[in-house]
């Protein structure tokens, strides 16, 4: 294989109660990436569409991941990378993760499946370090593994795939404002009350049980976050109105995607996803803030090949 | 129905990572209780075997629960209760819960299924208040619902039954020392580090996923407790040695049962349960402390009728 084109999905991390431990991948939103072997032995970004991202191979996440994987493998070829971004970086939808995980997946293919999935994940996590300074696993794991993932442990790295109920859909609104990851981190307390922690892990248990048993009501009841949302929602204009609109119109639950500013709602059925999209639109339509709204199924298989 | 005899199981609460949110019921260890209608309109404890428990109907947990249920129902009969305790109170194995849940289950039968399971649970929780001053749900829910339960929420009360893998067994050692519930509560911090909380809810997620998918290794990896065990283990002589012995001999995991002093190990297979029992025995056999060791399956259905 000398060339491949892939779809690398957008991802929602945290999923309300599962702060820093859960994420899922979107089926209809993500980046298109093309990887072509070259004889120069160099990793080059040859095209970027849809976002203002660096071309330098030590700053561009996809290039940094690709370069390191090829080096570690002692590959005798380089790679030309094209990136077509379908949603904006800084959305809280795992934009850098889509690039990093996409590169890890694609380079592994060009190297004839040299790496295990867990090894690909570690390269993708290196990409997250390039993007934001730390090796976060949630978004890249969701992109690589697909569906819902649980980061059970970092040391050792232990990723658990959680089944996705067939009628689960998601609506996302991306208000196009900037939230600095640093601010989103710094606003969180270093300690939390035991009582709050207990209710959070009870909800994580409920969410995992609901996903396993396709119990949509249980999923909805468990999508509660007393730990992070009360702090971070301040960064997101109209957050309370968005959440109320989602719940009033029949969403299972709603919360902040990653560190925001995007807000997601999980729903039962594609029709409900459209209904919530309309409800989100009502909240934002008279706002001065640009926004995009997406509806999607859950990407059960994560990154997919699209070039055949 | 004028009379019934039941088996009300011992229960293990917390299950390492699931502090105040999870519990399971034992198949082979529990109390035998007999309930017989009387025409006096009074609730009486007529026999207690195996433990030194109060006979007064406002102090005895079973009697207190029975009395309140009969009163609330406006029943025209009283009940005579016999309790045969097969394990000692103060073990951390839900002794009061077995009595309270047993009474709630039995009186509901004598009242021709007047109450829902959730209502029975609330009466059993009242029994916990009589026993220890607060309406804890974990042990009573495990006894009433059977198998593994998740207390997803207290307000509103939301109990989630989690499936039990068929080869899951448990070994328990009860060192017969007294730990005051108050001490066990007071030693815990009121706040915990965010990082610790995250790893705890990741493990709860892993444990629930492991139980749902019969993934014994995942269950084992998830049986980790960074929140409570480091504090409470100080109350339990040889705790570290017991835990090491369990893990060295092939247990999936081990931890403190409830607030102790009992220590449980979850294992795959009945043979392994015996092996861990022997390993526990090795640790304690030269100790000056009296102890009992039990092996058991998981009680998939909770309290059972035994009088036919």
Automatic annotation (TrEMBL), chains A, B:
Record-level Gene Ontology MF annotations: ATP binding; homoserine kinase activity
Superkingdom, natural source: Bacteria
Record-level GO cellular component terms: cytoplasm
Keyword annotations: Amino-acid biosynthesis, ATP-binding, Cytoplasm, Kinase, Nucleotide-binding, Threonine biosynthesis, Transferase
Positions bound to ATP: 88-98
Function per UniProt: Catalyzes the ATP-dependent phosphorylation of L-homoserine to L-homoserine phosphate.
Reaction equations catalysed: L-homoserine + ATP = O-phospho-L-homoserine + ADP + H(+)
Domain GHMP kinase C-terminal: 208-285
PANTHER family: HOMOSERINE KINASE, HOMOSERINE/4-DIPHOSPHOCYTIDYL-2-C-METHYL-D-ERYTHRITOL KINASE
Primary location group: cytoplasm
Positions of transmembrane segments: none
Compartment annotation: Cytoplasm
EC number: 2.7.1.39
Domain GHMP kinase N-terminal: 60-147
Gene that specifies this protein: thrB
Pathway named in the protein's UniProt entry: Amino-acid biosynthesis; L-threonine biosynthesis; L-threonine from L-aspartate: step 4/5
UniProt GO BP: threonine biosynthetic process
Family: Belongs to the GHMP kinase family. Homoserine kinase subfamily.
Database matches in Pfam families: GHMP_kinases_C, GHMP_kinases_N
EC class name: transferase
Protein name per its UniProtKB record: Homoserine kinase
Keyword tRNA processing: no
Family matches, as NCBIfam families: PRK01212.1-4, thrB
């Amino acid at each position: 294989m000398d060339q491949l084109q892939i779809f690398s999905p957008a991802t929602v991390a945290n999923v309300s109660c599962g702060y820093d431990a859960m994420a899922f991948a979107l089926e209809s939103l993500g980046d298109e990436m093309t990887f072509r072997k070259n004889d120069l032995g160099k990793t080059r970004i040859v095209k970027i569409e849809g976002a203002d991202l660096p071309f330098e191979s030590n700053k561009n996440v996809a290039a940094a991941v690709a370069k390191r994987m090829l080096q570690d493998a002692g590959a005798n070829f380089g790679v030309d990378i094209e990136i077509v971004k379908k949603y904006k970086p800084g959305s809280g939808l795992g934009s850098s993760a889509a690039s990093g995980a996409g590169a890890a997946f694609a380079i592994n293919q060009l190297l004839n499946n040299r790496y295990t999935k867990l090894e690909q994940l570690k390269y993708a996590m290196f990409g997250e370090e390039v993007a934001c300074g730390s090796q976060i696993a949630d978004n890249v794991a969701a992109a690589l593994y697909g569906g819902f993932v649980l980061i059970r442990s970092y040391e050792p790295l232990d990723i658990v795939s959680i089944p996705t109920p067939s009628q689960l859909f998601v609506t996302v609104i991306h208000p196009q404002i900037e939230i600095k990851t640093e601010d989103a981190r710094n606003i969180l307390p270093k300690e939390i009350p035991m009582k709050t922690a207990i209710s959070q892990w009870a909800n994580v248990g409920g969410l995992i049980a609901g996903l396993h048993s396709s119990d949509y009501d249980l999923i909805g009841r468990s999508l509660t976050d007393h730990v992070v949302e009360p702090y971070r929602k301040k960064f997101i204009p109209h957050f309370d109105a968005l959440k109320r609109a989602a719940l009033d119109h029949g969403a299972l639950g709603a919360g902040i995607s990653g560190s925001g500013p995007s807000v997601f709602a999980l729903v039962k059925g594609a029709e409900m996803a459209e209904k919530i999209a309309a409800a989100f639109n009502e909240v934002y339509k008279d706002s001065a803030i640009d926004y995009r709204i997406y509806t999607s199924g859950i990407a059960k298989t994560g990154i997919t090949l699209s070039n055949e």
